[in-house]
Amino acid sequence: MHLRVYRFDPSVDREPRYESYEVPYQPRMRIMDALDYVHEVLAVDIGYRWLCGSKKCGSCAVNVNGLPKLACWEPVQERMTIEPLSNLPVIRDLVTSRAPYEAALAKISPTLVRRTEYAGFPEPLKSTDVAPTAHLRECIQCLACQSACPVLRTGDTDFAGPALLVALSELAQDPRDGAERAALASDVANVFKCISCYACEPVCPAEIPIVREAIEPLKRMAYRVGSTPGARRAHAFLDTVKQRGYANAAAVAARSGDFGLGALGVALKMRRRGKLKFSDALGGRATPGLEGLRRTYETSEKEDK
Amino acid sequence: MTKVLETDVLVIGGGAAGTNAALKAADRGAQVAIVVKGLLGKSGCSIFAAFTPYFTKTDEQARRNRWRFMIRYYNHYLADQEYCARMEDYMCEEFYPDLERLGVYWRRDAQGNLEMINARNRSLVAHKQGATGPILLEKRRREIQRRALPLYEECAVTSLLGDGERVAGATVLDYRTGEFFAIRAKNVVLATGHSDYLATRATGTREQSADGLAMALRAGAELANLEIQWWHVSDVLAPKSWMRYHLYPNPLMGTLETSRLYNSAGEMFYEQKTHSPGASAPYTEQLRRLCLQVQAGKARWDGGYTSGYDHIPGDIIRAYQHQAKVWGKLGLDVARDRIECGITMHMRHGGLNVDTRTMATTVPGLYAAGGLGCHYLGGFGPASYDGKVAGEAAAEDALRRALPRLPQQALEAEAARVFGFLQADAAGPRPMQAKLRVRQIMWDLGYIKNEKNMQAALAALQEVREQSVPRLRLQSASRVWNTGWLDALDTCSMLDACEATVRSGLNRKESRGPFYREDYPYVDNEHWLCRNIVARVDGEWRSRQQKIEVPHLPPEKNREPFFEADY
């Protein structure tokens, strides 16, 4: 097997480099076994982090050929370029700092805030009460999803990212919790910045349906509260479609009160390319067959209640 | 000048014992600082806890079973029985409410009843990735963060500092940055666990190099029963990184069926319900049976035998989704295939000699909590109890006491030792090679011990200490996450801990539980129901025995052949 490993020691190196190692294949070998071989047999001091070696601690995720993988869990490939996770600062070589994640976690108050006083063990709780969070509780905070997130890759520091939203959603959907999780989701974690691209789901070693079971429920909650720009935009979008049968950027902007300079810049650019008419903000034609669409709205609103 | 921080209570370790010690010491009003070599709640052995034992006092039969299990099968009569009674109270009254209050959800059915593993001893589960430990520690971690207790992660404690009378603090290397600092403390709680990576195959994790044992030894503390070392028999052989994946020999939830062991001829040689129906956690019995297979040439310690669940109906075993996924990841079907296994060095019964009423060690100012003690094998619940006892005792004492003087000379000497390893040389030899050599020595010593092979192990360890350690050179002298630097420090800890363990083994002239001496192949309760103690004072090894009282459950026989005993 051929390994190309990212090497960077910020205390001495001016820029990162790649070093190559030949590692003999052993049956059932994991990525971690290959890294261990480099460390133990080739006696190279690569910086890499692993603790439990059995998919419990979530400390060993790295990018392999461009995709985040839990090193202890995934099998080796014949040629591997191994790099640190994206969207996190590098401490050395493959080791990234978890500090930004911890700081963001602290902001969403990640402990249970009880609605009512604790009743003593065992407190009244049924398996059905906690079923919505069953998959979320499997999260080991390996941060593979944070690494795969294209919104975080844009450098957006307001967006908490999928791993944080999983933690927040677990609490938000806990029947015992009474904190204002919807407000935290929209104002602090900026859940509406998630574009529902699903890039996080296939890389999750715990196989958590992150978008469907963590993020969408948070968006729904935040939508109901509706006070933040993100929630207002979501309302404006849905209302516009309900009214006309199609989305329209000018109308969405007008309804959500998005009149900032940034929004104006984007609007002008869109207008130049023929994608937006300012007059649409006020009126606009309804699409044929709108009645059917409205019935869909009514059904789903009823179900949501 | 080395930076010095100050606190009332310094907790070293971030597992079940360390986290609870920190929380309970803080509850008592003490200032607390926590240092963890890995990541709090993610490193160490506590996250491997598969389930938590469910203690009740209402069912007398269940209670008798529990005691028989604790004393005879789990601790081979080496437990402190008065401690067990107090720990039982804690498990009945405090353990579950403490963690449930933080939000832990223990599995229930649709009616809200707790779901239990109904083996001889009942247990509860709160699963994350097939284990209970990770979720319990995730909640404790967040509680510690919510209370903003000072936490130093990925920091290796390199030594305990004493003022001549008592422990006065510790030196710390933050290996992310290379910063070396000291923490001056009124009391120190060591909680570094009972599972270390000291043999080629071990369940101890990467960062676990017995630093706690080694530092305590160097501080003059007494260590007891280190030789009572458990081995897992049914752990995955390949890939090597999966040697910590365990095929439980105990009954699983929803069935009383257990995994089976097969030799190289395909003959089944161990099954819990057939071969040790009385023993829950039948690890010592598995070992003895495997030993007979190895001696008959039908298995090796590292492979040549298999384990599996293929005798259990597929729908029952596939319900264990995590186990099924582990097998599936290797291209195997949990309901049809078997996995080749090898033994792994697992938890150690022995550790620091403690007074279980406070968890104080024999060195003033130093407490030991959890598996690092010598009074009980460990487990998430008992370790949490120890944390509470040690945390509260250390806090109460600290509030009555002034900060001890930090010995400047010892501090600078330790800095010199630590930075002395930071020498680069392209030619080596590398610290990792010394580390691997120590693991190989302990692996070669293995399960079957005698005077001769223990003396040979001692000589081999001495050779590493004298010949290799002074010549170790690193690939780079960088202070940032320098794995070679850590490996060098680890090697020193491992050498101290392994030497103490082998010496302790030489002193014990009997066999017991997982400790087998072929030159003394009998259990001798008349002479060896004791804490078998070693200590190093001014460079001299000392040893003594401290009798273990058995007021609640004495052994049935004074002496019996090792291979006939069932515990």
Round the mean pLDDT of chain A to the nearest integer and report it.
93
The count of β-strands of chain A is 7
Give the rounded overall mean pLDDT of chain B: 95
Secondary-structure-derived class of chain B: alpha+beta
How much β-strand is present in the residues of chain B?
Answer: 15-25%
Q: Give the helix tally of chain A.
A: 11
- Multimeric status of the protein: heterodimer
Major sheet of chain A, described briefly?
5 strands, mixed
In DSSP terms (H or I, runs of 4 or more residues), the helix count of chain B works out at: 14
Low-confidence stretches of chain A: none
Report on the architecture of this protein.
Chain A is α+β, with helices and mostly antiparallel strands and 305 residues long. Chain A is 37% helix and 10% strand. Chain A has 11 helices and 7 strands. In chain A, strands 2-1-5-3-4 form a 5-stranded mixed β-sheet. In chain A, a hairpin with a 2-residue loop joins strand 3 (61-64) and strand 4. In chain A, helix 5 (162-172) packs antiparallel against helix 6 (181-188), helix 5 crosses helix 7 and helix 6 packs across helix 7. With 567 residues, chain B is of the alpha+beta class. In chain B, the strands form 6 sheets. In chain B, strands 1, 2, 6, 7, 8, 9 and 17 form a 7-stranded mixed β-sheet that branches. In chain B, a hairpin with a 4-residue loop joins strand 8 (167-174) and strand 9. The N and C termini of chain B lie far apart (54 Å). The mean pLDDT of chain B is 95. The interface between A and B is large, with 65 and 64 residues.
